[in-house]
Design goal:
This protein has 523 residues and is an alpha/beta fold. It contains twelve helices and 29 strands. The strands form eight sheets. The chain has a seven-stranded mixed β-sheet with strand order 6-5-13-7-8-9-10, sandwiched between helices.
């Protein structure tokens, strides 16, 4: 009634509900009612990755969005006096002379006040957290090397304090570098009020350290008596577009979806879709109450599935504008079936693992159907409708569900249920427990204005044999075609395996349905 077509939810629960199934939390029920009102709902999948079953988008009536990188980055560099350039991160302007003038380079540890009345802890001695710890005569007009140490490791030190120290003491700039004792760390580009660079890799930090030590002189006590090392901080605010992308972000929550707090798996694919969510420019309140480093800025470079979700919603809005009569399920289907599973190198999209610089080929539980493709989603060929009554029937078909609980939460009675939860008409098939065999159905509607002939092919998940009926069909505009999908276990296993159904149309439409199956037994 308010004229709302779409809700974007960059908010959600941090944990599954303790007192009911995930699909019947207050949050999920209100999204179900939004779907009943004809409102498309997209929801952030969560930022608890890369562990399994960490999604906080549970229900089939909301599109759960995972986050990935793009090929855009903001590389900075530290130019050393010997001509070497060391790469790093930092949305900062260059040091004096547009980054061409070499300033003296000083290690913070070598600039500590000898007689200062402060504790000799890393925060004071190495991490540049307290201006009173450093000799202003030594550091003024210099580029100061601050080192990642115990304070940053345990979360008591921060970049803000380095910037405050730099401004108070008049640094020409700072280089915040990795420490071999703590290893590489993750660095995100954030704006600095002074010239600065973050160098998160130990190997790069050691290049700087070696150059520095070769170009200073120390007395017999180890104090520096002559600083000959020089450096300049180069421009760090210019975007670069290179490298493999997208890559599923480490923080992006993973499937499989689950039905309760014990994380028993559900017959629903989550996340549904992958969209850009790493280092995304977004409007920002200049008050910036929780992020002092961004105070005064009207835009910020942010990461999270909360950044990925609005991308998907914008695409949903375009689809709705192009196809005004389409229901939310048809829009969700168009987004899913036209997604791509390949990156800009033509390889299967990678996902970041638990360790720095670790990657693996993504599965449907990392990226859903794949990277959203707006150009194709506007004209998907086929769509899969699933309306409010279908979702109630899905709830009523859940194993062991008390129908009175569904009635109390939704006000709807279980007049009928699906033969299996996987029979909900989603643009994917997920079977959390496959014993011997199971046949499910999908109903496909021609959303276009011309008849089209489709041929059906399938890549069966490992341990299963999948057969389709029919193997081809011709479908008129707005007509519906049912296909039966028979799964049979040929080798039982303890893990989900993945495949896909591909429907190839005579008018160049390609419709992909992800398959995720856990084959339990052959009998």
């Amino acid at each position: 009634m308010d004229g709302v077509d779409i809700l974007t939810l960059s908010v959600g629960p941090d944990e599954p509900p303790e007192d009911t199934i995930t699909f019947l939390s207050v949050f999920d029920v209100f999204m179900l009612f939004a779907r009943r009102a004809g409102v498309f709902v997209a929801q952030a999948a969560g930022n608890h990755g890369p562990d399994f079953s960490t999604v906080v988008s549970y229900s089939p009536w909301a599109v759960g969005v995972a986050a990935c990188s793009t090929d855009r980055s903001y590389p900075g560099s530290l130019l050393l006096g010997n001509g070497l350039k060391v790469g790093g991160v930092g949305l900062s302007g260059p040091s004096f002379g547009d980054g061409e003038f070499l300033c003296k380079l000083v290690l913070a540890k070598d600039a500590v006040r000898v007689n200062g009345a402060f504790p000799r802890t890393p925060a004071y001695v190495e991490e540049c957290q307290f201006p009173e710890a450093l000799d202003p005569i030594i550091v003024r007009g210099r580029i100061v090397i601050c080192v990642f140490s115990a304070g940053f490791y345990n979360g008591t030190s921060n970049i803000n304090a380095i910037i405050d120290t730099a401004r108070t003491l008049g640094f020409m700039g700072f280089a915040f570098v990795a420490n071999p004792a703590y290893g590489d760390f993750i660095a995100e580009p954030i704006p600095f009020a002074v010239s600065g660079i973050i160098i998160p890799k130990v190997a790069d930090a050691q290049i700087i350290s070696q150059y520095y030590e070769q170009n200073i002189q120390r007395d017999e006590r180890g104090f520096v008596i002559q600083y000959c090392a020089r450096a300049a901080i180069r421009e760090g605010r210019v975007a670069s577009f290179v490298g493999q992308a997208p890559i599923v972000s480490r923080f992006s929550s993973r499937g499989p979806d689950f039905v309760d707090i014990n994380r028993n798996p559900a017959d629903v694919l989550k996340p549904d879709i992958l969209a850009p969510g790493h280092q995304i420019w977004a409007a920002w309140s200049p008050l910036s109450a929780l992020e002092p480093i961004l105070t005064g800025y009207h835009f910020a470079l942010l990461s999270g599935t909360s950044m990925a979700t609005p991308h998907t919603v914008g695409i949903a809005a375009l689809i709705k504008q192009y196809n005004p009569s389409w229901t939310p399920s048809m829009i969700a289907s168009a987004i899913s079936t036209t997604a791509t599973k390949y990156d800009n190198y033509g390889e299967v999209i990678l996902a970041e693992g638990s360790y720095l610089n670790s990657y693996y080929p993504s599965t449907h539980f990392d990226s859903g159907a794949g990277l959203v493709n707006p150009a194709r989603a506007i004209d998907p060929g086929l769509v899969l409708p699933a309306e409010f009554e279908d979702h109630i029937n899905f709830l009523c078909s859940l194993p062991g569900i008390d129908w009175s609980v569904i009635n109390a939460a939704t006000g709807e009675r279980c007049n009928r249920s699906l033969s299996h939860p996987a029979n909900l008409n989603l643009p994917s098939v997920t079977i959390s427990t496959l014993r011997n065999s199971l046949t499910v159905k999908r109903s496909l509607k021609n959303g276009g204005s011309r008849p089209e002939t489709y041929t059906c092919s399938v890549i069966s998940p490992n341990g299963t044999m999948v057969n389709l009926s029919p193997t081809w069909f011709r479908i008129a505009p707005q007509e519906i075609q049912d296909i039966e999908i028979q799964f049979r276990v040929i080798q039982a296993g303890g893990e989900f395996s993945f495949g896909e159904i591909v429907l190839t149309g005579s008018l160049n439409h390609i419709v992909r349905l992800p398959l995720s199956v856990l084959p339990i037994s052959t009998s």
